[in-house]
Amino acid sequence: MKQTTLLLLFSFLVSSISIGQNITVSGILQDGSLSPVSGVTVSAMNASTVTDATGFFKLEVQTAEKAFDVNFSSEGVLSFTKNVKTKGQQQVSLGVVYFKAPKEAVDENETSVPSAKDVITGEDRIPTITLSGGEEESELGSQNISGILSASRDPFIAAAAFNLSSGGFDIRGFRSETTVLFNGMPFNNLERGSVFWSTWGGMNDVTRNRESAIDLSASSNTFGGIGGYTTFDIRASKQRKQKRVSYLFSNRSYNGRVMATYSTGMRPDGWAFTFLGSKRWAEEGYVPGTFYDAYSYFASVDRKLGDDHLLGLTLLGAPIERGSQGAAIQHANDLAGTNFYNPNWGWQTNSEGKKVKRNARVVKSHQPMAILRHDWKINERSNLSTSVGYLFGNYGRTRIDWFNAPDPRADYYRKLPVYAETANNFPERANVLTDLYSQNPDLLQLQWDAFYEGNTSHGRSWESQSGNWSQILLARERSDGSRLNGSSTYENIVSDHFTLNAGMTWQIEKTHYFKTAEDLLGGDYFLNIDAFALRDGLPLEVAQFNTNNSRIIVREGDKYGWDYDINGRKIGSWLQGQFSFNKVDLFVAGNMATTDFWRTGYFRNGRFPNNSFGDSQKQDFANFGAKAGLTFKFDGRNYIYFNAAAMNRAPTLRNVYVSPRNRDELTPGLTEEKVTSWEMGYQHRSPRLKARATVYKTQIDDRIRFNRFFFENAGSNNFGAFILSGLDEQHAGIELAFQANLTTTLSASGAASFSDNVFTSRADGFFVFDGDGESNSGELQALGTIYTDGFVIPNSPQTALSFGLNYRSPKFWSLSATVNYFDRTYIDFSPIRRTAEGVFGLGDDPDLYNATINQVNVFNEDRTGFKIDHFTVDLFANKSFRISHDMFFSLTGGVTNLLNATIIQGGYEQLRSNPKDVVASLKNNNPDATDIKYDPNKDPFAPRYFYAYGTNFFLMGALRF
């Protein structure tokens, strides 16, 4: 701390030094249709130039100032002024500057687009983000880097966000490695290290002002993650002055969206206000049985306090309720006649006697956030920004729960024809079931009326308790979080060649996990006891979920099962120096952080009375990181860069405890993750061409991975988990991207990713039930070595390509077409099949050995049993109109997957899947057959897949005035 203070004091002293030098300012001037604007005078200080036929300009300014105005004039009339901050650099590229015609030169009868803000941006393309029903992380709406970075001008990021995301593509194979900031405040949670994009869903108009990077480059706001950073500036003073209303129609997750925005900009009296409200809805989305009901609200106010201080407050929230999609095996999809078979819904007779669709997996969430930010301009060279934010609210999802009843799930394996045919050798029964489902497809869905009938007519009660004991109910699993964040960021342009950045962050986080009885489905009560424990013959006092409370009767709204907090605290600091010279730029940065966490239990679990109630022991981690980068500037257009980083970091909170629902036992092998990463590349930037080629490699060691499951026949029917400890990952590959202006109206763009994202170690495997029925010990069972070395990190294509053409007419309309290609998408794997025991006895059958051990590539028809497509085609168009002097209307439309290609985004092997058992059953059923091989279409525990949408579209109209 003393060294940091001395360095800051030294920076203040040096900041008074000014050295005059030549500053080269360049850019490209375009109008609202993105056509080049020529003949415009560009001037600053005593220098001036004129834009050429391509709109390009280059201005040499001699000044010692770190900020100055560049004026753009047409026919002697000042059109607009742009403030330029050099940040110690001698070459400043403004990129594309959008020309604003002087009011005197505007013909109000002409159809026109005034500036780039009126051109449809990435947010209005609403790139599809399909949430997988097979991944709990996706159910939570967690971070997907492609969706977060959708406004970037980098051609690779733009392709990943708009086109490749529909194929499940994750940049560099990362899903939650990007640091995200709102108004300078870190937004990543400690539980998973990710963000929940749904927190700001439906706020497109106010989240356009962002800065993004996917690499290890320097940032003035954060140390950054190995997946880069994204900073959102949503302050009212940074919003464009406008009134805007829009309506969107779509056939995706929601069918309609209406949005209204009002923003004053910074007023002469020093106040700035922005307000937004929106609603998104669908009675039924693209996937049957899903619905969508969401609102969004946003309010921000900024106040200038003199010339050097700005104080701002921002409030936002996005309450949402939606029905979820579930992943299914292909056999169930084929029975239903659609790859979007959704086992989460069924028909229910309402009070009016009408059949209505009801979804059992409903997500309901509202997590509002408030951010207070203060900006202090200390002098012309240095500034200090401080943010404090608080996020709170609720998140919950429902699911079917049951006690002593047949498994009520719609796609339960015993209900499927493939089980009758393969496992039980009843082909006649399989044929009967197939015909039954074909004639009565509703039988493939949840039977809500039967649930009500069973709960009210079975006549079961608990001891002397009156009323009906529900054997099936709808539970809501809650994870209500609260988070207090703070950050302070300092920047000092010490000299023309050196800029100092420093910051501190702190975070206090608590997530309250509990389960409630949402709907007893016609019954009167449920029990707060462990049904599995009773089945295992354990006494009642052991089977109780909460022995501190003798009352075990659960009514609607009551808690049962589990009730606990996961607490985390993190304090960090970082320091960065950026050096800029004529031919070389470089930076060096370092950070340090301390993290501690603990569990607080509110139930004393009967199986684990000594480590389930109260505060657990606190776990502490101290972590450090460093990164550096070097850029060689051959000229103003060609660059070579190299960045590298090394760090360790605390594990995420969700991987700390073996079974946090009932005890505080730590995961074996719990330690810091170790990360090393490097990247190098070439970049070209010129008026007609932007291109980038990057080679990268990241190594992450000592990761922990959980596979949670319900196991039915392990001697102790129970929930449990497979734990992989000491798991190492490598993310390596090549990224290519370009954007070329072929003519003044036609441009081409492309992106390609060739990656090798794999696990590079043999993990240690552990198996644990929530409780052990025989010993009541709940001890971990070692599985030994899990042969994960060489397995692909799942559910993102290792090869992804995109190529597009974009035509922009001088008449203010545009049309673009893009072709995308995907390959080498591997699904998640079952650890138990990758053990020595899992392949025991298979040495004489290489086909069966390979079917058991090899990971499934969804593009390999021999492994899946069916064929999917590699290519998709997307279209996008927009037209803009000027209605009056300050009123504009835009019409935008897009079609994704125009050719209705069949694309799998990912999937997972079921933990009970065992090709050896399938082959044994097939041989038993066909004793005369001599060449029987594993067939996934005959496996009742075949992998579950989730598909990208088929042909889908949106159409939006927006009015700005």
Give me some keywords for this one.
961 residues; mainly beta; Immunoglobulin-like; 4-stranded antiparallel beta sheet; 13 helices; 45% strand; disordered N terminus
Describe this structure in words.
With 961 residues, this protein is mostly beta strands. Residues 1-20, 101-152, 713-717 and 772-777 have low confidence and may be disordered. It contains 13 helices and 48 strands. Helix content is 10%, strand content 45%. It is globular and about 90 Å long. Among the domains are: 2-106, Sandwich (Immunoglobulin-like), CATH 2.60.40.10; 686-961, no CATH class. The longest helix has 13 residues, at 2-14. The two termini are 52 Å apart. The strands form 7 sheets. It has a 29-stranded antiparallel β-sheet that branches. Strands 3-2-5-6 form a 4-stranded antiparallel β-sheet, with no helix packed on it.
